[in-house]
User: Fold this.
Amino acid sequence: MTKNELISVIADRVDCTKKDAAIALEATLSSIQESLEKGEKVSIAGFGTFEVRQRNEKVCINPRTKEKMVCPPCKAPAFKAGRTLKQAVNK
Assistant:
């Protein structure tokens, strides 16, 4: 599902315009992003948790040149699905 398809589904379910649905979706996504930038967790009951995880330094191989190189430590966003979401997917 693309972002535009999601906007259409939201507009149909809430009975609003696509413009209003797009504004609501953008506000939700930007709020989640801002919280993650601050290092905060975002928990949505029944859906899951978004968080930032620290990745350690590691040795990588450049697939083009086969040369070994060191990838520096970094932070990466992560999502952990909640129990309700897992159960819905496994039906």
User: Anything to note?
Assistant: The beta strands are 42-44, 48-55, 58-61, 68-71, 74-81.
